[in-house]
Design brief:
Length: 654
């Protein structure tokens, strides 16, 4: 037999309040009804007729009103004393339907006399409408309080999602990969949730709060769910923005309600409870410091959160977990020991972590036998867990679109490019001149990536538009790197300028196609001068202090801590670095102009080239035996044609 859902405390209060109001209104309505009847004297027709005839002399009846076969009226003060027994002020009398003498007599003997049309059923309903609406509202609140009506009364309650054992799909550490260090940090939390008394018997105290910090998509929320799944305890999940409302005090009320629910659940279950606040920076921002104005509602909510976190006792078994990618804006009072004791930083996974994440996300995807996930992991440095999940999904969709039975390596490689740069735009109409310009531009990037030893070699070059780019050269890092040398940065700048240099060499002109390249070049050069101390003239120092989000990569405010003369030197050094790299790129491409032309012509023909084809075209890789055999057969069959056409073709390329 299915148990009925018990009403919550707020619903109980609502029903009691509605019932009380209903009883009070009923008493008022009955009192009004009986008071009307008790205050009215019913006259017989003969007595009323006699009083009506004597009214000009006695002035007993002050006014009267005829409604159908009923006359209602009011006594004068003299009439109240004589006929109304001293307290009955009103009277009523029923009259026969046909009495032709009565109306003239009423008009003659009563100064104030009215005739109203008879009341219909609709008139009665109209008079009773306010009372009926009020009763309907009370009934609706009383019987439907658990549904729509409760939303009005539950405005101050926390909009929390409760995940309990057996009611939702279980998430464990097996579903989380690539963040082994973070999982190790949380094992102690799980042991405490399973057996709190083990730690309390020795006087130890488990951390009251755990703050998960990291860039978007790295698995903070998933890790919190996995902790709840491993510990098998109730999991209260709420977003930081759910606390903030227009009305002051609502957020604080929701914080109190959230912790009340968590405490009650922990007491009833005898085990721990997790309260997870996602995007806590929405409510935990630094309180008003005298700049930009305050926010009373958010600050009251934060104050209540601070009190609740440092107010409840550890034996209740409540652990607060929170996630944010903006730790720089959180209030220091929220981060201190006793509230968030542990700060766990989650970075994007390394190559081994990415391979493990790919294995997790491809469990339900049918992969071809030749798929090598380690190769995909090597091509995706900097990808977060969410990026890798999206990559696997895009590969599966692409394979399904091509009516394949399994997802192959080709679909996974294509999904990488789709995630990074967007879908291909093969339907875009491009003029022959623009296509040729794009081919030489991308050929310049690709050739320099193979000629400069410090940069990452290209793995694919294409002139098919993808996303916002007219073409692209894909050169992923060969391995995960945490440090960059000066030679590597200078090589990256030279490679990024390869497209602009190729345009100048071939067309003796430059175009707007290098806009993004120039932005990247300027950014790298400025970082070398201002952040990395790689300028000889300015020395080993940093210039300017940036204040902005740690994990979002954008500087909101940059404090200028140098003079105008230093600013001029910074501009000169940035220009010198870019100019030197430009000359280096130009020197390499001029010396290898024939290879640049061959590569560009091959791109015009095939549109997409991988690294092996590119190296073979420019002579950095031995040609395959099949290609040598084809070339030999062609020379044997048409030696004269090849001799005649060779110079002309070279001349056209130049």
């Amino acid at each position: 037999m299915q148990d009925k859902k018990k009403p919550s405390g707020n619903q109980d209060v609502l029903r009691r309040l509605s019932l009380t109001l209903l009883i009070v209104l009923g008493i008022i309505f009955l009192f009004h009804l009986f008071s009307l009847k008790l205050n009215v004297k019913t006259l017989s027709y003969s007595d009323f007729y006699r009083l009506l005839e004597e009214n000009p002399q006695n002035r007993i009846i002050q006014q009267a009103k005829k409604i159908d076969n009923l006359i209602e009226g009011e006594f004068s003060l003299r009439g109240v004393k004589t006929i109304g027994e001293g307290y009955l002020r009103y009277f009523k009398v029923y009259i026969p339907e046909e009495d032709k003498e009565l109306i003239p007599l009423l008009r003659k003997n009563i100064e104030s006399f009215e005739i109203e049309p008879p009341r219909t059923i609709w008139t009665n309903i109209l008079y009773s409408l306010p009372t009926l609406l009020l009763l309907a509202f009370l009934w609706f609140s009383f019987y439907k309080g658990s549904q729509v009506g409760s939303r009005v009364w539950n405005f101050g309650r926390a909009r929390v999602q409760v995940i309990e054992k057996g009611k939702t799909p279980k998430v464990t550490f097996k579903d989380v990969a690539g963040i082994d260090e973070a999982k190790e940090e949380l094992k102690e939390i799980i042991e405490f949730l399973k057996d709190p008394k083990k730690f309390q018997r020795l006087g130890g105290r488990i951390p009251k709060g755990v703050l998960l910090v990291g860039p978007p998509g790295c698995g903070k929320t998933l890790l919190a769910k996995a902790v709840a799944g491993e510990a098998e305890v109730p999991f209260f999940s709420i977003s930081g923005s759910d606390f903030v409302e227009l009305f002051v005090g609502v957020g604080a009320s929701r914080v109190r309600d959230l912790f009340d629910q968590a405490k009650k659940t922990a007491r009833l279950g005898g085990r721990g409870t997790i309260v997870f606040i996602d995007e806590i920076d929405a409510v935990g921002r630094l309180r008003f410091a005298g700049i930009g104005g305050g926010h009373d509602e958010r600050e009251q909510t934060l104050n209540q959160l601070l009190v609740e976190m440092d107010g409840f006792q550890s034996e209740t078994g409540i652990i607060v977990m929170a996630a944010t990618n903006r730790p720089d804006v959180l209030d220091p009072a929220l981060l201190r020991p006793g509230r968030f004791d542990r700060h766990i930083v989650i970075y994007p996974p390394d190559i081994k972590g990415r391979e493990e994440i790919l294995k997790v996300h491809t469990r339900k995807i049918k992969l071809a036998k030749e798929v090598d996930l380690s190769k995909i992991a090597r091509q995706t440095p900097g990808f977060s867990g969410a990026d890798l999940e999206n990559l696997c999904n895009e590969a599966a969709l692409l394979a399904a679109r091509l009516n394949k039975d399994a997802v192959g390596q080709e679909e996974l490689n294509a999904a990488i490019e789709r995630v990074i740069m967007g879908p291909e735009k093969k339907s875009r109409i491009i003029s022959l001149q623009e296509k040729r310009l794009t081919a030489y531009h991308e050929a310049g990037h690709a050739l320099l990536s193979l000629l400069i030893p410090e940069v990452n070699p290209m793995t694919k070059v294409s002139i098919i538009p993808r996303g916002m780019a007219g073409g692209y050269t894909f050169a992923p890092p060969r391995e995960d790197r945490h440090y960059r040398s000066k030679k590597e940065l200078l090589g990256d700048i030279a490679m990024a300028l390869g497209g602009r240099v190729a345009e100048e060499i071939i067309f003796s002109d430059i175009t707007t196609g290098a806009t993004k390249d120039l932005e990247e070049v300027t950014r790298l050069a400025r970082q070398m001068v201002c952040d990395y101390g790689m300028s000889v003239r300015l020395g080993q120092r940093t210039l300017g202090r940036s204040q902005g989000p740690i994990f979002l990569g954008k500087d909101l405010v940059e404090e200028k801590d140098y003079s105008e003369e230093t600013a001029r030197l910074i501009d000169e050094e940035i220009k010198n670095i870019i100019d030197e790299c430009y000359l280096r790129a130009k020197d390499l491409l001029v010396k290898n102009k024939d290879k640049l032309s061959k590569l560009a012509e091959a791109l015009l023909e095939k549109e997409v080239l991988d690294v092996e084809e590119t190296k073979r075209i420019i002579g950095l890789l031995e040609p395959k035996k099949e290609d040598l055999q084809k070339t030999q057969d062609l020379e044997n069959n048409h030696p004269q044609d090849i001799a005649n056409n060779g110079p002309n073709q070279t001349q056209n390329q130049n």
